[in-house]
Amino acid sequence: MLKKGWLWVLGSGLLLLWLSAWLRPAQGGRVLVMPVEGSHWLSMKVLATGLAQRGHNILLLVPETNILIESSELFRTETFPVKISKEELSTSLKGFQEGVFKRSPALMDIVIQVGHLLNFTGMQVEGCESLLYNKPLMQKLKEENFDLVLTDPFLPCGPIIATALGLPAVYFLRGIPCGLDMLASQCPSPPSYVPRFQSGSTDKMTFVERIQNFVMSGVELVLCRIMYASFDELASRYLDADLTYQEIIGRGAIWLLRYDFTFEYPRPLMPNMVLIGGINCRKSAELSAEVEEFVKGSGEHGIVVFSLGSLVSSMPKEKAAIFFKAFSMIPQRVLWRYTGEIPDDVPENVKLMKWLPQNDLLGHPKAKAFITHGGTHGIYEGICHGVPMVMLPLFGDQGDNVHRVATRGVGVVLSIHDITAETLVDALNTVINDSSYKQRMEKLSAIHNDRPMQPLDLAVYWTEFVMRHKGADHLRPAAHDLNWLQYHSLDVIGFLLFIVLIITLATFKCCALCWRRCCRKSQKRKED
Amino acid sequence: MLKKGWLWVLGSGLLLLWLSAWLRPAQGGRVLVMPVEGSHWLSMKVLATGLAQRGHNILLLVPETNILIESSELFRTETFPVKISKEELSTSLKGFQEGVFKRSPALMDIVIQVGHLLNFTGMQVEGCESLLYNKPLMQKLKEENFDLVLTDPFLPCGPIIATALGLPAVYFLRGIPCGLDMLASQCPSPPSYVPRFQSGSTDKMTFVERIQNFVMSGVELVLCRIMYASFDELASRYLDADLTYQEIIGRGAIWLLRYDFTFEYPRPLMPNMVLIGGINCRKSAELSAEVEEFVKGSGEHGIVVFSLGSLVSSMPKEKAAIFFKAFSMIPQRVLWRYTGEIPDDVPENVKLMKWLPQNDLLGHPKAKAFITHGGTHGIYEGICHGVPMVMLPLFGDQGDNVHRVATRGVGVVLSIHDITAETLVDALNTVINDSSYKQRMEKLSAIHNDRPMQPLDLAVYWTEFVMRHKGADHLRPAAHDLNWLQYHSLDVIGFLLFIVLIITLATFKCCALCWRRCCRKSQKRKED
């Protein structure tokens, strides 16, 4: 009996050993994580957590003043001082939140957006400088002997630090304004069918739309130069090398792209790009008893989930009144992430919450519609759980995102500026009662969820790959060694045209010479 | 006790049910497999077998006269009569086998190769016609209600049948001559860093090489037109539609490409391309007792594995003598797939075999070098097991393949025409005794084998995906709707240049008019 017991213990021990070897890498790597604030962090956190759970040693590097980035038991956090104070950040954020509900003249919109972006990047460059020139901290980072930097190249600090420390970088992003991600990774984006940011086109364009998209792609090149001038300057100065920011991020080992082709239009990709769209969507957990009761009470009509994202949870009183009025006119119950002023007559079917278990609510069988601002996180949760959407884009890439979703026929777009209770009710009725929306959404959802590997596993795999092989050089295209003229073979075409010209001219000269000689001879003969 | 027994039976039953549900799809699909002869079939067989083992109903459609395609217990085989007899095929094959050892004038080489290919495709078109116009068989195929066609678009019959039956197609291939695969899938291949077939360049080219590659990419376009004229004609005639073969294969749902970037140079890919390089490599099985004894007897020197592929297993007596002589000069033991004339003085360290367990031998710890013709199957088995190579390209893509391997520094290329015992011994000594070859090969092998999913699982997954969703339309780029001019935005550029010209002319005219008026006025004033 004793023998059997020992065998059992030994067997279990061996099994545990085998399991732990399988579940964890042989030796945990050392990863420096440099996230970007806001929703960017919310999805990167999924990967950082996944890596920590696999036994890697994670150091999260964040500015002292931040909004959503919090520390965790799973990884170490190192903060660095920045010039902006918590109060200044709050004021700036509040101004921004109010700004999204103010209508700007249509033509000015793009100028204002670029202005906002320049202001934002300026602030970020300042923050980055505080870090880069913080010698003790940089020395400490150097001594940590990291294996890689996991960062979002939306902001310059991560890629610059990776270059400075000579570490391979894994990027985690949805995209970079003006298509810098595609430029830097040498990924072809033919303007004939790859719509540019804010162009309002799909991948199927008319001649006029193609002209517009072509011009936009040219404008983007100029915009890139302007927008990233401060990044270029900082990088060159700090690294003491004549490098553009585009060249620096072009050195990234792996690009983990937070989309797939249920959302994005099919387009060429590079070998070091890995699609992890939907990484933030997970199997829905149980709701709290109170919320579950409210949801269940909706009966056959079901619920509507309403959130304007991680940064915007309030709105002007008059705007909120429109929503309250609309919700009083529908039979569904509404769960709304709202921290604004609460009126006296909140309809009974509306539950206001400071924080919304959005993923779990969307995954609930009672979820009928999702009112969203069109951030990619919300959109992917909607697609993942198959819930049709009413979309109210506020800023940044959201206008483009909702356009992509709307062209799939799984959502309706409304303008936050022009919205009325009637248009909102109409839109909700359409996506809830016109069964074609649900059908198309279920089909899209089935395609999105049908993938050989879960996005998180894929992201973890390729991050560990970079650790194991100290990069992914075998996936780096030789296009990085060519300049623009060479890449497009314009020097070759020029040379060939020159040769053709020379040959044509020489032939022409020869013919002319022969002709003249012949003429002379016949003239001579005539004269003779 | 009885109760416990029943519970055990019930539990086991449930477990078995769960296991079978997990291992098999809910309902097996119906797959029509149309392979291409020779080594093409050897790797496609791996997927066909994998699909059959997953419970799918596979019908293998093959010409009555064939070389390597054999029936299997796992899938049904349907043959169709073709004009060429077994004897004619054997004679043709023998002629081909002898031809590869004859040297053709360097300049004529490409002409001869294209000639061979045209002859081969002509024969195949004839065979395909026999099938397409075989009404009873075609009716039978229609009634089978297949879910998809799995085929190699190297030959036209599979894609044409898929179109005729209105079925989605999954392609399984290494590539199609003159880059038709990339053209048809709308995959960008910038000639500035994607070397063309037979160009002899790598992805890093000098200016002269880039000129050469650019010209080659133009020549390819013309070659494509010539080589596939018979395919175009057959497809248009049979389908009664104005379609080119390129347009037909452009409709493929998924392209399973039999390479990865340990072998291929990094380049753009399309979303519906799945890389399954190394699908033919498997964990090496035990050798037969006789072979194992021979291998073990090699001692510390190890063995050399020698095969010239599935189609060439003999060679002229004089050529073979060179190899026998070389092998008598090395300490390693040699296992050679050889069916040619056997001389009296075969060295003791040489074992001649009609069939070689190539994968198992390469996976044996004693394997020191691999003499190969440079087919992708052999190359991937070599990379997979990490064995340095001596390569003797014979025909087709082999010249290009060995060039790719050689640039990685894991193999040496010799010419089958110029080979001598000394050069062969030198080459073997280099790859065996210069440890840098083994080191680089081990690194390459580690990268190749480090992948999130096994190639076979990936191929099965995407084939089943196409069955589940009746295609993969969400991965189809809108570029398919554009013509060449539109794709490259040349119409847009032309239009913009025209507008610029008009504006310039108008401005010039206006200025000239103003100038003239001013001049007249001042002249008038002077006159006054």
Can you describe this structure?
Two copies of one chain form a homodimer. In chain A, 50% of the residues lie in helices and 11% in strands. Chain A has 528 residues and is an alpha/beta fold. In chain A, strand 12, helix 15 (398-407) and strand 13 (411-413) form a beta-alpha-beta unit. In chain A, helix 4 (108-132) runs parallel beside helix 9 (229-239). Chains A and B meet through helix 8, helix 18 and helix 20 of A and helix 8, helix 18 and helix 20 of B. Chains A, B: The chain crosses the membrane at residues 492-515. Chains A, B: One of its GO terms (cellular component) is endoplasmic reticulum membrane.
Features:
signal (chains A, B), 3 domains, 7-stranded parallel beta sheet, transmembrane helix (chains A, B), Rossmann fold, transmembrane (chains A, B), 528 residues, UDP_glucos_trans (chains A, B), alpha/beta, homodimer, globular
